[in-house]
Amino acid sequence: MLAVVRSATLLGIAGEEVAVEVHAGPGLPGFTVVGLPDATCREARDRVRAAILSSGLSWPQERVTVNLAPSGLRKVGAGLDLAIAVGVLVASEQAEHPPQGFAFIGELGLDGSVRPVLGILPMAASLQQCDLVVPTNSAAEAMLLTRHRVRPVVTLREVVACLSGAHPWPTPAPVENQLPAPMSPPDLSEVRGNRIGRLALEVAAAGGHHLLMSGPPGAGKTMLAERLVGLLNDLSPDRSLEATMIRSAAGLRLVDSGLETRPPFRNPHHTLSQVALIGGGSQFIRPGEISLAHGGVLFLDELGEFAAPALDALRQPLEEGVVRIHRAHASATLPASFQLVAAMNPCPCGFAGTLSCRCSSAALMRYQRRLSGPLIDRFDLRILIERTDSEALLAQAPSEPTAVVAARVAGARDRAMARGVESNRHLSSAALEKHSRLDPPARALLGAQVTAGKLSGRGVRRVRTVALTLDDLAEGTGVVTAETILLALALRSDLLADTLGGAAHEVVGVSTNSGGSFAAGGRNR
User: Fold this and answer.
1) pTM over 0.70
2) Cys staple from 83: which of 20, 348, 374, 444, with CB 3.0 to 4.6 Å?
3) Whole-angstrom Cα distance, residue 263 to residue 240?
4) Between the CA of residue 252 and those of 120, 244, 435, what are the distances in Å?
């Protein structure tokens, strides 16, 4: 007898519909799985057999062949177990054939229990509107799409009883009762001093610019980076669904109401491998940290300690917003539109330029060579974070809170949206030329920087983009002045210069109060 059961498998972060065809007929008893299954799929033979026997059912003494169609698509994971088991029971006439609109996703335990698997959400998205049978612990995730009627089950025996009509299909609990409460992000008011750091953080949030901070240990680099996501707008509906699917494919627990409504913040350790950072894998393509940060912030602390090949692999995703994984058995394109924030010490000991520095010239050169020029050039903002003085550190007056700065950032983002982009960082050269007009002194200043070899063609575009963001924060007219260009250049300084901190304060030429607000182009806020 032949049975056909609908299911799905995972490829990267995308689901692919699979038709599980099971045939039981005459021949020597055996069980064969064909259709490009991976090792986990092939092991379904033993899991399914034990689950059927543990459920009080009989294993067919026939030749059983399972075909996973389409045959040219590689099948990964244990999510096909439940569909295979249902197909075997139907083919051996121990269960009723599922109605046309049913699909099954779940792993089987040897005791007959139905267990959750990675990527329920993207696999469910690959299926047309149907009755979707999933493990109880995965029901909340599957319900996020709202186009399926979710049927949560606990055991294989329960599935057989529901198919025969002996028991009704269970009703899932409301989603909000199954997910953890959101956590409040840290507030910017907790940051004392660090005027240049706060300014750079606001500009980075407003324009989506990549930010590199260098400074001694304890200067507040990590503290600033952790507060960037609090300044960003909520994710758009499409971006929210993409980010949630990535978390689902990676096996991470969902947050808030299930959908990832807030920009994610990822802070991987510097010992992670290139595959863990970029994504991939030899057998099962998994999203890396850059995909998990999609729509949010990827913070690389101790940037100089990361492996150089892993850092250089970031260059293409930073430009294109996706990462393309190619393996012998499969290829996948994973979304990776993230904002990169990095922090590093100026030298291995962290005290370069002071009497406390213990690093030799050779050690300093080795440390600097870990970061390639093309990668550094992709940071729109590069600043030195100095240690906060005692007066600012012990001041009783609170700094400007996140809510106030986020309101300015939202205004700048709205101006970018009016230009047809999510943030100024995504403006094309033609759009930048249209919306950012340089006055003659500003054009002459940029020309002098190019002539002196301090800016590349990409650097000129980056500086102009930062200048436009500064103009947006100041609610300007789009005409970029030399003063604004000077400020953008000061926020893109040479981190190897010992006097960067003082030079930045001199060149900025803006008024910075204790809260961190600023004026650009002569417009006071």
Assistant:
1) yes
2) 20
3) 8
4) 11, 9, 41
